[in-house]
């Protein structure tokens, strides 16, 4: 029992959970508005798109790579799908757009996969390059502009709510979109794959020691390739969901999200060099960023302070984890010496 | 079925037109401990990688259990019972011991899903086989080198291994740990497993192996029973040269010591170490891996400064709080790990030589290109570094020549005191001999030299006095006249 | 005689091999200039067109120089745009204050404002350097966070809107030309010359490259690793600040989200210029070429009205990937179809 408690306090997730908890208590104390049904539902729906993005970013970072192209990839897929379906005057359900997004997303992800996975080029630069290409295709070739109307099926999907929560004190109510289930499913699936499949363990193994993984018989290149494809798919689904939720397609407003998503993943305890991190931590880290972005206003901090807070959060968060890594490294060395000497 | 478990006959391998293996052969009997020896670059690692399926041979025959193998993939090799324990052990520092042990068997069985309970059982069986005790749930990165190696061995044993190849397994082990490892190897032999032990250390080859094979520059030089081998023959096979031992006798000592160390302590690493070195003298510091010898060296060079005690240079007390301070006080330091501490491998030989004295090679703030070039050419010639062009990357050099570059870097700073931590680790016998010659010559020119090493023949041959450490404390000081390895070992253990 | 000739040939070949990357950029550039000469000679080869180009590229060119030095150490600077904007905003506010209602300030103040910008850049870059060198935060995260923070400060200072009612003297001074050469370019050239001098002529350049190869070996060789890192990020900060000052003049206003795609563009340019993202390799000449090439490509494309300017980003990305793949095949001597482990070491 004691052991379990100690283990709990060695985990990053525990700390980030405590920080989130403290933050919510602070917001609640200052505004009385945090623990209200509608606010919680609002936070949950605000988590959907960043959460999906984070899953993809997390997997790639875990394997020792990085992907900064997912917002551009998602924007391109979402715009291309929506535009195409509008052009053919599609009237059916949301399944076709999602299926289309999956196919396009997989293809675009495969481009990243070929360069960063199969050819083993530096992932950061590759995805910067593909990000630029995706943007160019969207804005140049497809001449993207805002689409105020989206296909009926997507519109309905965006409006359909799991449930609606009302705040009796101020009469506000918020609905949780069905799309939240997608996040739950994707997160659960990823959790399962990472924990209970050899593919998932391979991701950790590659992130920890790529050569050893190759020697042990993991298909390193194939695994990395598939991760970029998967990230492409998840990001594309997120892109479509965002269009559905906003009830219109705004091609450029997802661009630039990549840095905050990656920051969230890292704050959740994922090592930027790969090999270390958990799905729970990834979601908690993303939640922390979403909270800071959405809830500062509740404690009376003007919106203009948002970036300052997020920036400080990233710097302090990474400084603490860098300090921790150094300390354990030190202790490890010392402990090792002591053990051998005795 | 043939008398041999494994045969490789007339293997050729080229890398981008360069011949790495030139018709080598290797035969291993069931249940034997076979030693494969050779200098760095002789092709032994290439052969191992061919056997394990990492590289493909260009021509030649490989037979395992009487069956000819055409193309070998890593998984094939494992399935047939060939296991390699690489120098870096091919382990995952970020995963737990349990996963490190069980992950390969999962892969070989082509499992898609992970059964944690099953994995734990597999792992437990694996460690019990050689009676290794370890917590299965700790992250592997936190274990000691020896423990990591044991994990790698346990992992290798899980697949019904018939042939285990160990690539330089003793490099990072303490003497005690080497003993334990040899015990395990003999235990494996009793279970009928063949061991291919790759090493270039004489004493180990003699102690453990029954038969040996020596490669040199990609060719097979000799193979036979270890009993028929002696020191001289062995070095000759390895290098193609014959050597004479030149024991160092100090020529003329300076009157006063150049370096004096008084009660130096760094809690957790070493305690109350005192010694002094005169100009013209070579002091040896030896001890086991955990004796604090490396920490002492790092403290003297200011990487991890000591907390208590005094260091005096030319009689003047100095504080060595950083490597820059050490250099200012005319201390040079050849570190233990050439690859990660000594050399900028991808950079030019020239830059590697001048980097530490670079601030003295400028004229009114601007780098003096001519002076730099002269300096580089001077040292390349002085140290007889074998390179067509000092603009070439340091990685193009052999281990011995690389070590000469590191030496040149420090000699260029014209130090009074030169500290060398394991000066000939991973250096082939020929270069080792030459480097010893250089050190002795430097001492005769009046430099104070400290060699930190656990290579006992090396310290006996080159040092005039010896300081032996044990568990961070001094356990003896001796003169190297009429001393034996046994006497030193008694103090070390 | 014959031997000497082959030797000369070898020397030329080795000079080519050593600067392969540079030569490739020069060839691409020449091809582009020939292409423009053939298709749009009268529209591309005008003095005004070149003057415009030379006034435009200094803003991201300066930032690229900053990213370059950081990338040579094996790090990166993602805060350049943040630093540029916060500098532009703070100096614009200061000038507003000095100029008062008159919207005029003396040349003396323009100089002071520039010096102040350099100080702001030094502080911001120095902070980055401290985080990287002293706290050992991975540079990508440290500068990401600091970039966000600087942008945030910019937003707070401006309330999220643009500042444009600052003295016109400033934009007038910087948008000017001296002997037909845009002042923006002169500022860039001064910075590039100073930096080239530091990298090529002083020991800093050599130390930087070696430090980027291995920080650990640098430490064991007695280099002041922390100081070099801090100095490097400080230089990057100053470059970004100057870039911000040019943006302020070119846009004639300051805002916290100007030039937000410059972060990625700068990294593209630096890699295109031959700097290795892993550190330890790179030349300022390559980066200068890449800066100019990127601008020439974009300006050239603008001469084709039927091609959307958005294609530019597609082309950048494609060129970057192409250059990387070329490097991959030429420098590793690997054929696509041979399986190999990731690091190769024979024995």
TrEMBL record, chain A:
A molecular function annotated in GO for this UniProt entry is: transmembrane transporter activity
Alphabetized UniProt keyword annotations: Cell inner membrane, Cell membrane, Membrane, Transmembrane, Transmembrane helix, Transport
TM helices/strands, residue ranges: 12-29, 98-119, 176-194, 225-243, 255-275, 282-302, 308-325
Indicate where this protein resides in the cell: Cell membrane
Q: Name one GO cellular component term.
A: plasma membrane
Topology in the lipid bilayer: Multi-pass membrane protein
Q: Does the keyword Ubl conjugation apply?
A: no
Name under which the protein is recorded: Monosaccharide ABC transporter membrane protein (CUT2 family)
The protein's organism comes out as: Muricomes intestini
UniProtKB/TrEMBL annotation, chain B:
Matching PROSITE patterns, A to Z? ABC_TRANSPORTER_1 (PS00211), ABC_TRANSPORTER_2 (PS50893)
Membrane topology listed for this record: Peripheral membrane protein
Matching CDD domains, A to Z? ABC_Carb_Monos_I (cd03216), ABC_Carb_Monos_II (cd03215)
Q: Which GO terms describe its molecular function?
A: ATP binding; ATP hydrolysis activity
Lineage, highest ranks first: Bacteria, Bacillati, Bacillota, Clostridia, Lachnospirales
Q: What SMART domains has UniProt attached to this entry?
A: AAA
Q: By its UniProt entry, which InterPro entries does this protein fall under?
A: AAA+_ATPase (IPR003593), ABC_carbohydrate_import_ATPase (IPR050107), ABC_transporter-like_ATP-bd (IPR003439), ABC_transporter-like_CS (IPR017871), P-loop_NTPase (IPR027417)
User: Which stretches make up the ABC transporter domain?
Assistant: 6-242, 253-493
Which species is this record about? Answer: Muricomes intestini
Q: Output the Gene Ontology cellular-component terms.
A: plasma membrane
Main localization category: membrane
Do you know which Gene3D superfamilies this protein is assigned to? P-loop containing nucleotide triphosphate hydrolases
**Sorted UniProt keywords:** ATP-binding, Cell membrane, Membrane, Nucleotide-binding, Repeat, Sugar transport, Translocase, Transport
What protein name does the entry list? Answer: Monosaccharide ABC transporter ATP-binding protein (CUT2 family)
Q: Where in the cell is it found?
A: Cell membrane
TrEMBL record, chain C:
Q: Which Pfam families match?
A: BPD_transp_2
A cellular component annotation (GO) from this entry:
plasma membrane
Q: What is this protein called?
A: Monosaccharide ABC transporter membrane protein (CUT2 family)
**One GO MF term, please?**
transmembrane transporter activity
Query: Which PANTHER family did the record assign?
Result: ABC TRANSPORTER PERMEASE PROTEIN YPHD-RELATED (PTHR32196:SF21), ABC TRANSPORTER PERMEASE PROTEIN YPHD-RELATED-RELATED (PTHR32196)
The keyword Aminoacyl-tRNA synthetase is assigned to this record: no
Top-rank taxon of the source lineage equals Bacteria
Major site of localization recorded for this protein = membrane
Segments passing through the bilayer:
21-42, 62-95, 107-127, 179-200, 228-250, 262-280, 310-330
Localization, UniProt: Cell membrane
Q: Which UniProt keywords apply?
A: Cell inner membrane, Cell membrane, Membrane, Transmembrane, Transmembrane helix, Transport
The protein's topology relative to the membrane is: Multi-pass membrane protein
